[in-house]
Design goal:
The protein is of the alpha/beta class and 403 residues long. Helices cover 35% and strands 17% of the residues. The mean pLDDT is 96.
Length: 403
């Protein structure tokens, strides 16, 4: 890191963005120009070790040779963007077929653009079956920013201020089996008719809090008992980040409906066939399943994760990373470490300290992001090596050990 950050090329891009585009959730002055493996490079030649994988959207890192082959293949295809729910394509069929090998039996997929749209269509599938009743979600949840998904989001007030909300009932997201509210859903379902129960297994934007096993199993038990579909949101955790294809596999449960996106490159609402809408046009979208390149990359990503045993690597590297981070607890404001696989949250005592440390880590060549009120999220690509884990831990020790 011997060059100025941001350098002149990056600064021109940032200035243009600030002049002509909405200055959204940018955390530090990083302009992504290129990358390889777990390294991102900016337009001025600065290189950064990536502990974000672009919020889980790049699970096998950058410039992966298998993905580069896919991109080369499509570089001469002029019909890469089609109306994917109106016309068939091989890429759509290939992705549907390969994802069927990693989801519960008797499930089908509806492909869409984004994580929020995956959630929107998941709740639409439930509404279609149950009617326009309130849905149940958890405090601290994040399910997306479109208005339906946003109704069930409650991680930060800024996401929701002055926006309308469809009917929702909320329960506590329990991270401890002994939480006094662990059975709150049962009481709620005794007194209310609802359309669905929606939750993450690891709260992403909410702070990387990991649900207790009893909590998730209770949701499954009460959902079955009262005949209410259970929707599990795997948009951020899915496709291997926790060391299993889906975070819910750690809990020995199966949802009725699930949402995923990010690592898949496209969004998907995935559902038990018994919930399939009888009307063919109940779900559709011009671009749903409409990017042939993204679907081909998604298919190849699943293939690479299988072939290279990256779920095992996520577990192994995650254990090394988590052990290293636990040594920081109690030092300079670090109060907790939690997570599964390569999806790890580091909790600080104050938001101000967290914000300062994220920027300092960036300036020392390590990319991280915030989550929740005071947490730092760590979600590296599944291809990360032991050497890169140790390099990241070294930077974190240097930065987090100082005031």
């Amino acid at each position: 890191m011997n060059k100025k950050i941001p350098g002149p090329n990056s600064k021109r891009i940032i200035d243009t963005m600030r002049k002509y585009a909405y200055d959204s959730t940018f955390v530090y002055p990083l302009v992504i120009a290129n990358g390889h493996d777990c390294i991102i490079e900016d337009p001025d030649g600065n290189k950064f070790l990536d502990f974000t994988s672009n919020i889980g959207a790049c699970p096998i890192g950058y410039s992966h040779p298998d993905i580069m082959e896919v991109l080369a293949e499509y570089s001469t295809n002029g019909t890469h963007k089609i109306a994917g729910q109106d016309f068939y394509s091989k890429e759509h069929a290939d992705l549907a077929e390969i994802i069927s090998t990693i989801i519960p039996r008797n499930f089908k997929a509806f492909f869409i653009n984004s994580g929020a749209e995956a959630v929107e269509n998941s709740i639409k599938i439930a509404y279609r079956k149950m009617g326009p009743l309130p849905g149940v979600s958890c405090l601290g949840a994040f399910h997306g920013r479109t208005l339906g998904a946003l109704s069930f989001t409650s991680s930060r007030p800024v996401h929701k201020y002055n926006f309308p909300e469809i009917p929702v009932k909320r329960i506590k997201f329990c991270t401890n089996d002994n939480d006094p509210e662990i059975n709150a859903l049962e009481s709620l379902l005794k007194e209310n008719k609802v359309a669905f129960i929606l939750t993450e297994v690891i709260q992403g934007e909410g702070g990387y809090y990991v649900a207790s096993k009893k909590f998730i199993r209770n949701l499954r038990k009460y959902a079955t008992q009262y005949g209410v579909p259970l929707i599990l949101d795997e948009v951020q955790s899915g496709l291997g980040h926790t060391g299993k294809w889906w975070a819910f596999e750690h809990y020995g449960v199966t949802p009725d409906i699930m949402s995923t996106a990010k690592a898949l490159q496209v969004g998907a609402a995935i559902y038990n066939k018994k919930f399939e809408p009888s009307d063919r046009s109940a779900l559709s979208s011009t671009w749903g399943g409409g990017s042939r390149i993204d679907m081909a990359v998604g298919t190849k990503t699943i293939h690479v994760i299988k072939r290279d045993k990256l779920l095992e690597n996520a577990t192994k590297m995650g254990n090394i990373l988590k052990r290293g981070l636990q040594e920081l607890v109690g030092k300079k404001g670090v109060v907790d470490v939690r997570g599964l696989g390569l999806m790890i949250g580091l909790e600080f005592d104050t938001k101000i300290r967290r914000e300062k440390k994220i920027v300092k880590l960036f300036r020392n060549g390590l990319l991280t992001l915030g989550a929740g009120q005071k947490s730092l999220r760590i979600i590296p690509p599944l291809v990360i090596t032991k050497e890169q884990v140790e390099q990241g831990l070294s930077i974190m020790n240097q930065v987090l050990s100082r005031d």
